[in-house]
Amino acid sequence: MDMLLFQLEKNGDKPLYDQLYSGLKDAIISKKITVGEKLPSKRKLADFLNISQTTIEIAYAQLLAEGYIMSKSRVGYFVEEIDDLPYIQQEVTAIPSEQPKKKSYVIDFNPGSIDIDAFPFQTWRKYARDLFDNTSKELLLTGAPQGELALRTEIAHYLYQSRGVVCNPEQIVIGSGTEQLLPMILRLFKEDACFALENPGYPTVHRMFSQYKRKVFPIPVDDEGIVIHELEKTSADVVYITPSHQFPTGAVLSATRRAQALNWAAGSPSRYIIEDDYDSEFRYTGKPIPALQALDRNDKVIYMSTFTKSLMPSLRVAYFVLPPKLLSTYNDVFNYYSSTVPRFDQHIVANFMRDGHFSKHLNRMRKIYRKKHDQLTSILENYFPQIQMAGEQAGMHVLLTVEHTLSEKQLQQLANDAGIGIYPLSDYRLDRQTNQQAQFLLGFGGIPVQQIESTIEKLMTCWHIKKQPTSNSQ
Ligand SMILES: Cc1ncc(COP(=O)(O)O)c(C=O)c1O
Asked: Closest residue (by CA) to atom 4 of ligand 1?
């Protein structure tokens, strides 16, 4: 072996043993040193390179460990036969840079935002701390595929009390978000099953169905919710709906439409309804409306909900309730997989619910959101009729219809230029058709109550919309 092969940089950043190791490895891979060739003895090489024998020893030991060389007792080190050349420099594949961050605005009416100032961190921390303890060591092992029984039991209890949903914990499946659970539900149906979706609707669901290449019928929505007569005209087997607070229009599915939807589902054994009850905890007018599942007598509703609005979006805990008829299909397909939610997190939520903190938190948040809602709606009323509101009975966003000479896109641009994030309804359409009339989702969950008035004023100023004189001042 040519000992002049190595040029070591004594004052370089890389340690000498590492330079030697890399130099030798590259020489072996590129066959500059051939298989079977003997490496110089440690002493000889150390003398030649004027470095310590220990440096050589470390470099040789690393090459030995990685299988580039072998050692023959009392004879020396020899280059090994190596299979492929795993370290040969390859053309570097460009790694896509991280997704650009979503635009940030000074004021953001994002309908997905929640209030983050009233979370009971202290209580949550106590449950987390108590669980991360030797007495819970069993939680280090994999849990039940459907999710922890303790959490499913709490959810079943809560759903019965608050939504009239009757179910056993055995029917509940916990997963890390609606967006993770819906693909599971898809797999319960035949590949050629057809789906119907609300239009406009939840974009995540629209995207998901198209990624899974499922046949989809967009069904229009009016102020009574999804138009079931339009659904009846299709060959859909499964319809996904948000009856308590249609996303994004905010319409509540009327009693007549509820009955029509259930009758539609009862019309064929292959038909099912997926009921997404994502923000039903927050209702501001009238009595709470029970879930559609609670009215279903034919096991036709797959109920689903989430802790995204009621606790936090980052928790990533949601669940669905399967009608007993679908349980065996579920077990055949999914019982081999582990739950996607960490067991510790599931137990924190379960214990939090068990001890009444979830109800307490909901009551508190309801008050906060009601305050924000009342403030928002009363301020917006000042701009009537140029600004009209809909979907304000529940949830954390309202739908604004803006009478204006400018288009929806132009109004959005004006707001964005003023540092205000506002969300056009046409972005929620399956066909992305632009609305004739400018309509926007106005999320108020994340806006501090004391800032609601000024934020609306800023928005109206940038749209050149003036308050209407009240009848008293006329
Ligand atoms: C219609 C609808 N469903 C579900 C969710 C919650 O989804 P996830 O549980 O994946 O956070 C949202 C969140 O904004 C929603 O708008």
From this structure: 278
Regarding the beta carbon of 276 and ligand 1, being less than 6 Å apart is answered yes
Nearest CA to ligand 1 atom 14: 112
Q: Does residue 68 line the site of ligand 1, with CB under 6 A?
A: no
Beta strand residue intervals within 293-386, DSSP E = 301-306, 318-321
Name residue, tokens 């009608």.
Answer: 323
Model confidence pLDDT, tens digit, residues 117-171: 999 999 999 999 999 999 999 999 999 999 999 999 999 999 999 999 999 999 9
CATH of domain 121-355: 3.40.640.10
| Cβ of residue 310 lying under 6 Å from some atom of ligand 1 | no
Distance CA 158, CA 353 (A): 8
Amino acid (one-letter) located at 168: N
* The residue type at 32: K
Residue 422 and residue 415 in contact, taking contact as beta carbons nearer than 8 Å: yes
Residue 474 confidence (pLDDT): 42
What residue spans define the domains of the chain? 3-79, 107-111+360-473, 121-355
Q: Are strands 194-199 and 215-222 parallel, antiparallel or unpaired?
A: parallel
**Spatial distance between the Cα atoms of 303 and 318, rounded to a whole number of angstroms:** 11
Of 208, 279, 308, the one to substitute when testing ligand 1's pocket (max ligand atoms within 8 A of C-beta) is 308
Q: DSSP per residue over 99-115, as a string?
A: PPPPP--SEE--TT---
Is 240 near ligand 1, meaning CB less than 6 Å away? Answer: no
Q: Are strands 423-424 and 438-443 parallel, antiparallel or unpaired?
A: antiparallel
CA of 94 to the centre of ligand 1 (A): 33
User: Is the pLDDT reported for residue 453 higher than 90?
Assistant: yes
Q: How far, in Å, from the CA of 64 to the mean position of ligand 1?
A: 54
Higher pLDDT, 228 or 48: 228
The average pLDDT across 291-316 equals: 97
Digit-coded pLDDT (tens) for 109-119: 999 999 999 99
Tell me which CATH code domain 107-111+360-473 carries: 3.90.1150.10
Same fold, 3-79 and 121-355: no
Task: Give me the CATH code for the 3-79 domain, please.
Answer: 1.10.10.10
What is the structure's pLDDT at 77?
Answer: 94
